[in-house]
Please model this.
Amino acid sequence: MKKIKISILACTLLLSLGCEKILEEHPQSQIVPSYFNSPAGVLGGIAGVYNEIRNQWGTEGFSSEMQAGTDEFIQGASSGGGPIHTFNGLNSTNFGSAWGTSFTSINTLNGVLKFGQSISLPEATKKQYLAQAKFLRAYWYFYLVQTWGDVPLHTEFITVPSQAAKRDPAAEVYKLIIKDLTEAAADLPDKPTAPFLGKAATKPVALFFLAKAYLTRGWLTNSQTDFAEAAKISSDIIANKATYGLDLWQDFGDAFVPANDYGKETMFVSDHSNDAKFGYYSVGGGSSGGAAQNLTPWFTNWNYPNNSGVNSTVNASGILVNSGTSLMVRDSYYGRPYQRIRPNSVKQTAGETAGMNYFLDQAFVKRDIDSRFANTFYTVYIANQSITNTATAANNKRGISYTTQIGVDTAVWLPDFEVAGAPQFIGTRPFKGIVVPPSLWKADVYPAIKKHMDPSRGSNFNDPSTRPVVITRFAEVYLVGAEAYLQAGNKAKAAELLNVIRQRAAYRKTNTAAQNTAAAEAMLIKEADVTVDFILDERSRELFGEWMRYQDLVRTKTLVKRIKLWNNEAAPYVKDFHLLRPIPQSEIDRTVEGPAFTQNPGY
Model:
């Protein structure tokens, strides 16, 4: 590399939300070795790396890199186009926002690990600091190796710029990841402990990523030993959930209630705050889309303020045409309409999935029993402005005049089944709002993800979200364990773990006890049902929109197959070499000493 970046702490740093949970450090323009000669310096280095996670997870470009162009998502009306959605033209100049961030963080952590050994702290505290650094180094390397394969492996703190760089084998990278996570798990506390409060790394978080690293390496090398180890670790985490203060909420929807963001199901997060002293948020200023802002709630939103005309009709081609005064205005509850990506509800036109769409026909099936569809997506929009629609208004086919009531009338209903008479009637009954069934969903009208929404926008509902980005939930421990047990040849145990997740999904607060019992029974699967594809579908149901779908498909070597089955946009272009992303051109260009820095095949 032409220049090795040293981690920059350009503002006060934040680890955890809540007045009693905030870690503060003085601004530093650059980290140099002397900075690590004190406990505050070491702690500041760790906090800086947590900050770099905030610069990726929850931001726009990175979120698209982790989800767009998969079986789950296709382009929304304002996607901006581009190869990240279709793989068409994907190259070294249009991918890789986190490459530099990763190596900046890794170098900072190497400094922490080098100098942190000699700082004056109680031994238990020092161990926790170093364990945090090992976890975070493994976390970043795990992202790197999954994304690019062979990458530079650095374990020494670099202070002298170099114009040389090389790629080390993925096998060596995984050795470091597993070593770091194993050692981190041994020294991290069971539950969040000061100064790493909120939901920073703990023992079960390190163990979870260790299990996932073994699982991922197992897929690469077909290692039964790795699959067995991933399965064992997952089961151990579940068996010790009380010790770790972890559990599933009885109701799937409760995992996404803002008050539960730091609750028992949440394992690891990237924090956000509306406190101006942290430098990323100005109340009432709106979101700029820049680094460290959590814009997750808005990415899948359709343009409900502009496309909810009260007298919308269907044209001769069967397309919904917006017409009449909008039934909705933008508000904090329904969020900003970014329209970057949308659920893949487009029917396939050929092959074994012809006439089906992934969203409703494969992923979210059993919607009458399984609560995850209803808890994940908005399908009902209640009027937030009152309009008067006259019987003679253009395109009003209802033959009646009426006025909508704010907070009472349904403005837009997006049912998950076809409705005769849509969009202005339900059967023969006039509907005050509009009905948009699946056949009318398109790039600017579709169910939006609601589980990440943040209605607490203060004076400006265009402000970024200050909810944490929840990177890991306890539910995924069951899914990783099920996948590992399947690959290790124990389908019965895989089914057992999947059934815990599935039966939780059957619970609804509005059901009677008898109804919940019957629903749970209906969700049970048998070991013969468990396949890799079934687990991937189950991951969609449980984790839709949680920043990992591309990695899921790459890990299980199903990226090309599933895109060709389900994604019409990307199917013509996706190739086997897309299992790895293109190395950023900037890295290749900066390597001017020694051997050239090689690009991944196909790019």
About this structure: The first helix runs from residue 39 to 54. The two ends are 20 Å apart (CA to CA). Residues 1-29 have pLDDT under 50 and may be disordered. The chain has 18 helices and 15 strands.
